[in-house]
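Re-running the complex after MR caught last week's input typo. The corrected sequence lines follow. Everything else is unchanged.
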Amino acid sequence: MSGTRRAFASVRATARLIAVKDLRIERRGRVLTNQVLPFALIVMVMFAFALDSDAVLERVAPGLVWLATLFSTLFVIARSFAVESSDGALDQLRTSGAPSAGIFLGKALALMVQLLVLVVVLVAAAVVLYRADISWQGGVLLVTTALAATCGLAAVGTLYGGLSAGAKGRETLLPLLVLPVVAPVLIGATRATESAFGTNGIAVGEGWPWLGLLVVFAVLFSVTGAIAFGSLLDE
Amino acid sequence: MTTTSERNVTGTSFTRGLGIVTLLGIVLLVVLGLFVSPADVNQGESVRIMYAHVPGAWLAYLAFVVTGISSAAYLWKRTRSLTWDRIAGASAEVGVLFMGISLVTGSLWGRITWGTYWTWDARLTTTAFLFVTYVGYLAVRGLGGSHHQRARRSAVLALLAVLEIPLVHFSVRLWNTLHQEASVAGRGTDVTMDGLMLFSLFLGVIVFTLMYVWLVLHRQRALALQDMVEDSGLDAALAARRAEAVV
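Corrected-run output:
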């Protein structure tokens, strides 16, 4: 009994250490704020050029927010594992004896925090650029949607990022692997955000079932990731 | 009786026999499908696409199931063997091929019958995702590293696909039912099929299955040889250069 408790404590401690480490690297390196966020914003502006109509933009704003999030997520994942594969950091992590579930959860947590920042900025951009409108209840739905969706994205991203870490051609491989998997997140988050924005007069209440999909996805991939990450690491 | 690894070929008397049977079956299928079986009342001649489309789709699903099972067998410690990994890889390659065939034939048939190459029907969309997922799987297999590294990586990926596909299917269906009125129309199951058509279809499934077994056996052996070449490649090359130097 105390053995399992100790194992859990060890996983938690590792997760916290790894998450804090990754966020500290981000705070000092500022890749998210100086490169990924500007990229995401330019994508939002480009969407406006391509679609060229206020009415259309208002209609598709939720989808564009999440598309931009997905594209930017790929960069954040790549960054998260570029940090590990340089200077053989990943090998050191492997040989350190730290529980792989802890490493997985830590990296996923750091990823999730960064993705949340990204989503907040993109939603703000949608409000400013695409005239999205958020009511008070819509805001609650939006926050929970963002939490569940980024959790799912972070879990999948960490899993597949770890899978392709250190491999040749991983920059191009990662999108091919990740995008099909996160299609349910795109569908669920977009529908939930549509109701939060009230796009096409969709009521806020209609968004909650989609949140269920996002939560199932997040839980499923977090658990699977925590279990499977070990066999990806010890090679 | 020499084994394949001794003779360094991928054919045995079994696969040769299987190949001949498959070939005869294909000939019979072509004759039945293109000439003997009748045209459909509603679809006309385009119904003949079905004899390649349905077996192709069935085969692709079978292939991916085999990939999943072999991957699990590799990951399970008591049955860990690179043979499982090669079967998984060979099966996925053949599966991607057949899925590609059934996607192309399906959209051609759709253009003739529904007037459109593509509909956002849940089954179609899931199939497309399945295709892309296994293309990614094959890309991961090609990443390099040691054999066991490749095997473990791709086995985990194959099992993740088993998790992913039902989720994608479920969410696409949810998306569809709420946001699209009509998807695949007029595919009633109450339609009675002509006896000969049904027979041709079954023959197609059997012939394609035999072809799958034949392809996977050969491909698996070719992959084994490839692994052997990679293992012994450097040694053999060094020995050859030494031999040249002596002469």
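None of the earlier attempt is carried over here. Residues 180-189 of chain B have pLDDT under 50 and may be disordered. Chain B has seven helices and no strands.
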